[in-house]
């Protein structure tokens, strides 16, 4: 499906697909675990684990001062500041002035650290369930299935411009590859390759689908995407497999098209 996702990466938390409602986040990032486990790797793993505990403590308790975090986690304030600096550098937390209720004491209010929207998104979310619930509610109404199909087509049309530009500026024989690159830029890990009989066409493979759980219940999302690929490439295409259906990859067969047919699609508006 055609909607990208972003997550928190780098020195701090992993992206939302890797971070779940655990006390300690899974270890991912620049250092990989090895059977031997060098001291440097063990140190880096411990750093990530502690950093994730700091972020989790802010999630559980709300905006917190350095002193509060140090007391809750059993760390020195210097250590907490170091981890907060790293998390702030990754866009996971931000510093704010602490709100004061009642009479304000002399001096500057204490600084607290809160999760950013990006940092909060790295923890468990219920977006899939919310989307599925909303579409199910629509489906249960009169004309609901037609409304969902219309929504799916409108969703694709709203995202069409970048894909259309990529395809229409490519040479006819490179348009499937251009579409794959545009999809990959949105997080779909797409590739183009020759079909088992290359003279007959190509296969567009999407190795990731961020809405697979919803599309499993509402195949109209996949159908609208297939229709869009056909309109964009100017030829009938065939969806061979989908992640939503339990396959490992979304695979679309694209037959070879003549250069004249390809040129005729130029300048057409999104459906």
Question: How would you sum up this structure, described in words?
Answer:
By secondary structure, the chain is α+β, with helices and mostly antiparallel strands. It is 45% helix and 11% strand. It is built from 11 helices and 6 strands. The strands form 2 sheets. A 4-stranded antiparallel β-sheet has the order 3-4-6-5, with helices on one face. α6 packs across α10 (220-233). It is elongated. This is ArsR family transcriptional regulator.
Sequence of secondary-structure elements: HHHEEHHHHHEEHHEEH
Poorly predicted parts: 4-37, 259-271
Number of helices: 11
User: Which secondary-structure class do the elements indicate?
Assistant: alpha+beta
Number of strands: 6
User: What's the gyration radius in Å?
Assistant: 24 Å
- Largest sheet descriptor: 4 strands, antiparallel
Note the gap between the termini: 16 Å
- Numbering strands along the chain, what is their spatial order in the largest sheet? 3-4-6-5
Q: What fraction of residues sit in β-strands?
A: 5-15%
Shape: elongated
Helix content: 40-55%
Mean pLDDT: 80
Region (Disordered): 1-50
Pfam family, one: HTH_5
InterPro entries: ArsR-like_HTH (IPR011991), Carb_Metab_HTH_regulators (IPR050313), HTH_ArsR_DNA-bd_dom (IPR001845), WH-like_DNA-bd_sf (IPR036388), WH_DNA-bd_sf (IPR036390)
Domain HTH arsR-type: 49-94
Provide the fold topology:
Layout: H1 39-61, H2 66-73, H3 77-89, E1 93-97, E2 111-115, H4 117-121, H5 127-139, H6 144-158, H7 160-168, H8 175-185, E3 190-194, E4 201-206, H9 212-217, H10 220-233, E5 238-241, E6 250-255, H11 259-263
């Amino acid at each position: 499906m055609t909607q990208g996702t972003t997550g928190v990466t780098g020195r701090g938390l992993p992206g939302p697909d890797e971070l779940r409602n655990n006390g300690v986040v899974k270890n991912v990032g620049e250092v990989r675990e090895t059977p031997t486990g060098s001291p440097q790797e063990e140190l880096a793993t411990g750093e990530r684990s502690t950093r994730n505990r700091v972020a989790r403590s802010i999630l559980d308790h709300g905006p917190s001062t350095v002193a509060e975090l140090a007391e809750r986690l059993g760390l020195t304030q210097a250590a907490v500041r170091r981890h907060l600096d790293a998390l702030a550098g990754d866009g996971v937390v931000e510093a704010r002035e602490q709100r004061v209720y009642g009479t304000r004491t002399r001096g500057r209010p204490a600084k607290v650290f809160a999760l950013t929207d990006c940092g909060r998104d790295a923890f468990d979310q219920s977006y899939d369930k919310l989307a599925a619930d909303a579409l199910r509610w629509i489906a249960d109404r009169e004309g609901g299935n037609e409304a969902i199909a219309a929504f799916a087509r409108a969703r694709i049309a709203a995202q069409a411009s970048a894909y259309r530009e990529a395809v229409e500026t490519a040479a006819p024989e490179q348009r499937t590859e251009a579409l794959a690159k545009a999809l990959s830029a949105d997080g779909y890990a797409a590739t183009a390759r020759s079909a088992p009989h290359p003279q007959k066409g190509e296969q567009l493979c999407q190795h990731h689908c961020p809405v697979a759980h919803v599309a499993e219940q509402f195949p109209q999302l996949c159908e609208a995407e297939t229709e869009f690929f056909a309109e964009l490439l100017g030829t009938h295409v065939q969806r061979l497999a989908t992640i939503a259906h339990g396959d490992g990859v979304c695979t679309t067969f694209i037959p070879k098209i003549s250069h004249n047919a390809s040129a005729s699609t130029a300048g057409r508006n999104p459906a």
